[in-house]
Design brief:
Strand content: 15-25%
Helix content: 25-40%
Shape: globular
Length: 432
Amino acid sequence: MTCKFFLLLIASVLSQMVTPTQAASAPLDYSDISKPEFFPIIPWGPLHGWQPPFTQNTNNGLESMAECGFNVAGFVFPSDVRLCQKLGLGAITLPVDNSEVPLNYRREWRKLSLDQIDQRVKTMVELSGKNPAVKGYFLSDEPSVSDFPALGKAVAAVRKYAPGKLAYINLYPNYATVGPTNTSQLGTSNYTDYLERFVKEVNPQLISYDNYMVEMSQDLSDSTKAARYYSNLLEVRRVALAHHLPYLNIVSANQIRPGTTIPSPANLSFQAYTTLAAGYRGVTWYTYYSTGYRYAPIDSTGRKTLTWAYLKEVNRQLTTLAPIMSRLESTAVFFSAPSPVENLPLLPGNLVASATCPTSLMIGEFKHCSGQSYVMVVNLSLERSGHFTLQTKVSDQPIQIISAMDGSLSPYDNKNGVWLTAGQGVLLLVGN
């Protein structure tokens, strides 16, 4: 696709006031890694569970995922793929045997020979079938560096047998243990080395990791834990951009530990918008089903919770902004002073000279292939609304607000600024 086509696409999205429902039915496949519009919104966890009896929630299964605004179902059996297609969901399938019993390769790829890895992937691809709803295959979650050589072979086999499909691997966060491979989770002395070795040894299609420190920090009140969220967000971004890879973030949609804060409109919005502001190409929510966690979108009895309703609204906003965000290149990330934690890059940025707000702000700067500039501004407070104004380095540039409600444009009034609720973000188009 050409840059001219991209411009026409965005102009159409903005001028026609695309609603979330229309965006979901548009002829663009945000779940397909081979497409430039790739922007998955994923509920992390197996539809049927990891353990027998592998039953599906009949009241709130795949249909409820589609209703909640997801565009990829993670993770499903091959027999679920046809319904995924009917619902407009991409499918990441689990490795199964011929009886559709899940095979646990989350930790066991390194036990297989090269020929065994090749055959396992070939079988996985064949059992998943040729339905276009199949977008990828689950390989591993939170591997150590000792798993990387085997995973590199598995990824190569996916490229061999299913070109253009995703070989799905998710990495540890930066608070995993470090040290020797036999005594730590990462198997390296530091997190950056873990990321770099993953890229070098696995040759992945993207970098995905999970970080649940927003709620584990008691809604950011513990600054040490909050700092781990921001540093992880920026370090994965740095490494991924250096290697020209898209990058995904897995964030929390349940009470991640007993005694931690629970999902709220503010902390769900915060996790989504800070992910967008850092240039990530999708958002994954852990978990959709309770599976032992409280306050998940679907509880242990199979019923929707308030978290489901909160998450549906955040996913609706992501869906509205996806046609634009998926076409943008992240050029910089800055924070207003005083920053929420230490050692974050402060304004001025390359585009934004200054910003005023009683709450801390995160500011992501972006470029479109046409040369147009965009800015994402996020209110980092989870307790209060914030009213901001900003100044760009080029004076008198027109600025327009892109509505997360319908994608329409409205003028930005710098005199009166913009109000953002707790954890909320806003996307701005800067210049003509």
